[in-house]
Design goal:
Elements (H helix, E strand, L loop, with lengths): L5 E5 L5 H8 L4 E5 L5 H11 L4 E5 L3 E3 L3 H10 L4 E9 L16 H8 L2 H4 L20 E3 L6 E5 H7 L11 H11 L3 E12 L10 H18 L2 H57 L7 H22 L6 E2 H19 L10 H24 L4 E2 L7 E6 L2 H14 L4 E7 L10 E2 L3 H7 L4 E5 L5 H11 L4 E5 L6 E3 L8 E3 L10 H20 L1 H7 L3 H12 L4 E3 L17 E3 L11 H10 L3 H11 L1
C-alpha cells in the first residue's frame, strides 16, 4: 500500500537518530532537542503527514505482516469508524486488557481503585475500565483505545482535532477517543489480528512515578470533560487512588527487597535462642547459665554477622544457589570464631553454640528458600547442574548467525536446539517448529528465539500465546546483533548485545565496588597524615574520603566528557574517572565502555592509586 513512515525522536541520548538515518533513509525523521511528550511529538508528524489514515504506533511493538491491511480494510467497510485499536499481547503472549477500555467515569475509577474488577472479573458493573466481560477474540465498539496502536481516519481528526498537548504522557488517548465518540463516530476494538506490545520501556508500570503521572492525567481529563461537581468527586477518588496505590507500590518494592533478609534474621535469631537454651540445660544443667549479655548482645551480633556474610556471598542475588548460601554461612562462622578470642570473657559465648548455630543458620536459610521456591521462586543447586537450553527458530543461514551471536554474548555455556520453521530438512535441524510444543513438555527449554527474517510476525505472536509462561520468547531481527524480549509488561526484560554485556551490572561486582569504596575510604581517613604527604591535592583528600564513606560519591565514576555516558550503566559520580592520562575527547567513551564492560574491583584500586 502507499504509505509514509514518520519517526519522532524525543531527544534520545543514544545514537537512535543517526541509526535511523543510516538504516532507513526513506523514513521521514523529526529529531527534537527536548522531550516534548507523547502528544506534541505525535502531532508534529501528523501535521506534516498526508494520508487518508494515520496510525500512532509505539516503538516497543511488533506488528504482524497483514495487520495494517486488515485494519484498513475493516475501517473502509465501517464508515462509522473514527478510530480503531487492535488486540495486543505482551512479551509472554498474555493478552493486554488495555487493548479495549471503557470511559473512566467516577464509578469506573472507584471500581478500578478498589480493585473490584479483579475480585469480580465477570461482573459487568465492576469492569467498566478494562471491559473484561467482552470477548478478546471478537470485534467490539468500545469507548477508549490505546495510543500504542491507534488507527485514525484523517477526516475525523480534522473534525475533532489532534491529540491534546496538555497531556505529557498518558490520558491523551482517552481524551481523543472520547472526542471521537462525542462527534458521533465509533471506536472499534479489532480482534482479527494481534501485535506484541512489550511495554515497560517508557515508564515502569508499577513504579510510583507511573502511578502519579497516570492518575494526574485522569484528573486533567475529568476537569476538561466532566461537570465541576463530577470533576471534584473524580479528583478526590484519584487522589485516594494515588495514595493507596503509591503506598502499596512503595511497601511492595521495599518488602520484596527486604523480605528474605528479614525472614532470615528472624529464623537465625530464633534458632540461636533455642540452641542457647538447649545447650545451657543439656551441657550445664542450668537454665540460667548464660548471662543476659549473651542473649541480648551476642546472639543479635551473631545474626548480623551471618546476614552480612550471606549478602557478601551472594545469597540475596537474583539467582540463589545452595553453594552461595553455604559459603556465606562458613564465612560468618570463620569471622565469629576469629573474633571469639579477641573479646573479654564476659562477652564470650559458647563455641559449641556457634558451631551448632552455623548448622541451624544453613538449615533455616535453605528452608526459607525452599518454601519460596515452591511458591514460584528458584533455588539452584538442588538438581544436577545443566546448561541453559535455547531453541533458535529459523532457516540454516540465519540460525548459524544467531547461534554465533549467542555464543559470543553468553558468559556461561548453553545448549542450542536448532528448529526449522518448516518441515525438518537434513541433519542440521534437530526438529521442526511443529514439534516444538511437545519437545518443551518433554525437556525444559528456557528460551525460544525466533529469527524474524525467516519466521513471520503472525507466526511468532501465535506461538507466544501458545508457549505462554512455559518459556521465555525473544526475537532477533535480520542483520541485528540484538535479541529482544520481555517476559512481563512490568519489566524492561533483557537486551543481549555485545556492547551491553557489562560486568559492573552483576550483583557480585556491585558489592565489590561498594565494599572497596567503604573500606578504602576508611583506610584513607585512618592514614590521613600519610595521605597528606603523598596526595597531589591535599586540601581535597579528607573531604573526598568522607564523601565516599557516606555514599555521596564513588572513588571511580564515568567521565562526563563522554557524550554517550548516559547510555552506560548508572554509577555514582566519581572522585576519579577511568581516564587517568591525557587522551583525546573522542577516546573517552572507549575508556568508559571498557571500565563498565570489564569491571573488577582491582581496576578501582589501580585507578585510585595512580590518581592519588
Amino acid at each position: 500500500m502507499e504509505h509514509e513512515v514518520w519517526v519522532v525522536d524525543n531527544a534520545s541520548v543514544d545514537d537512535s537518530v543517526e541509526w535511523v538515518k543510516a538504516q532507513y533513509p526513506e523514513v521521514k525523521l523529526i529529531a527534537n532537542e527536548h522531550n516534548l511528550g507523547f502528544s506534541k511529538a505525535n502531532n508534529q508528524a501528523i501535521r506534516k503527514s498526508q494520508s487518508e489514515y494515520v496510525i500512532l504506533l509505539n516503538p516497543d511493538t511488533v506488528v504482524e505482516e497483514d495487520s495494517l491491511r486488515a485494519c484498513i480494510d475493516f475501517m473502509d467497510s465501517h464508515p462509522d469508524a473514527g478510530a480503531l485499536g487492535i488486540r495486543m499481547i505482551d512479551g509472554s503472549g498474555t493478552f493486554l486488557p488495555e487493548s479495549k477500555r471503557g470511559l473512566p467515569t467516577p464509578w469506573v475509577a472507584a471500581c478500578k481503585t478498589l480493585r473490584l474488577h479483579k475480585l469480580f472479573p465477570s461482573v459487568k458493573a465492576f469492569n467498566g475500565y478494562y471491559l473484561s466481560y467482552l470477548d478478546e477474540r471478537e470485534n467490539h465498539a468500545v469507548d477508549v483505545l490505546s495510543g500504542a496502536f491507534m488507527l485514525l481516519r484523517r477526516s475525523v481528526l480534522d473534525e475533532v482535532g489532534l491529540l491534546d498537548e496538555d497531556y505529557f504522557m498518558y490520558g491523551e488517548d482517552v481524551d481523543l477517543s472520547y472526542r471521537i465518540t462525542k462527534a458521533g463516530y465509533r471506536n472499534y476494538y479489532y480482534a482479527g489480528s494481534s501485535i506484541i506490545h512489550y511495554k515497560g520501556e517508557s515508564t515502569k508500570k508499577g513504579s510510583l512515578n507511573y502511578i502519579v503521572t497516570f492518575y494526574k492525567a485522569m484528573i486533567l481529563f475529568a476537569q476538561k470533560h466532566y461537570s465541576k461537581q463530577q470533576a471534584g468527586l473524580y479528583s478526590l477518588l484519584i487522589k485516594a487512588a494515588i495514595l493507596i496505590h503509591g503506598t502499596a507500590s512503595f511497601i511492595k518494592s521495599k518488602l520484596i527487597k527486604f523480605l528474605l533478609p528479614l525472614l532470615d534474621a528472624v529464623g537465625i535469631l530464633g534458632s540461636l535462642y533455642a540452641l542457647s537454651n538447649f545447650w545451657e540445660v543439656y551441657r550445664y544443667g542450668d537454665a540460667d547459665y548464660f548471662s543476659s549479655t549473651a542473649y541480648y548482645i551476642n546472639l543479635p551480633v551473631y545474626t548480623a554477622v551471618w546476614l552480612l556474610s550471606l549478602w557478601l556471598a551472594g545469597a540475596y542475588d537474583r539467582h540463589k544457589h545452595i553453594f552461595k548460601i553455604l559459603r556465606g554461612v562458613a564465612i560468618g562462622l570463620l569471622i565469629l570464631l576469629s573474633a571469639y578470642g579477641l573479646v573479654s570473657l564476659e562477652y564470650r559465648h559458647s563455641r559449641m553454640v556457634l558451631l551448632l548455630g552455623a548448622v541451624s543458620t544453613a538449615f533455616v536459610v535453605l528452608v526459607w528458600r525452599l518454601l519460596l521456591w515452591n511458591m514460584g521462586g528458584r533455588l539452584e543447586g538442588l538438581s544436577p547442574k545443566r546448561n541453559r537450553r535455547l531453541a533458535v527458530v529459523g532457516k540454516e543461514e540465519e540460525v548459524t548467525r544467531v547461534t554465533g551471536l549467542i555464543q559470543n554474548l553468553m558468559k556461561n555455556p548453553v545448549d542450542i536446539i536448532k528448529v526449522s520453521p518448516q518441515s525438518q530438512q537434513g541433519n542440521y535441524f534437530r526438529m521442526s517448529l511443529a514439534d516444538l510444543d511437545s519437545a518443551m513438555d518433554k525437556s525444559r527449554i528456557d528460551e525460544v528465539i525466533f529469527c524474524s527474517k525467516d519466521v513471520p510476525a503472525s507466526v511468532i505472536t501465535k506461538w507466544m500465546s501458545k508457549i505462554g509462561t512455559k518459556s521465555r520468547v525473544k526475537i532477533v531481527a535480520d542483520q541485528s546483533t540484538s535479541i529482544i524480549g520481555s517476559p512481563s509488561k512490568n519489566s524492561r526484560g533483557e537486551l543481549y548485545t555485545v556492547e551491553l554485556s557489562f560486568n559492573i551490572l552483576e550483583p557480585q561486582h556491585q558489592r565489590n565496588k561498594w565494599l572497596f569504596d567503604k573500606l578504602s575510604s576508611l583506610l584513607m581517613i585512618v592514614l590521613f597524615p600519610l595521605g597528606l604527604a603523598f596526595s597531589r591535592k591535599r586540601a581535597k583528600y579528607l573531604p573526598r574520603s568522607l564523601q565516599v564513606l557516606l555514599g555521596r560519591r564513588s572513588w571511580v565514576g564515568l567521565d562526563h566528557r563522554d557524550q554517550e555516558w548516559q547510555t552506560l550503566p548508572s554509577i555514582k559520580d566519581g572522585v576519579f574517572t577511568p581516564v587517568w592520562e591525557e587522551v583525546d575527547v573522542a577516546a573517552v567513551h572507549g575508556h568508559n565502555l571498557s571500565y563498565c564492560r570489564d569491571y573488577l574491583w582491582t581496576e578501582d584500586l589501580n585507578l585510585v592509586i595512580r590518581q592519588i
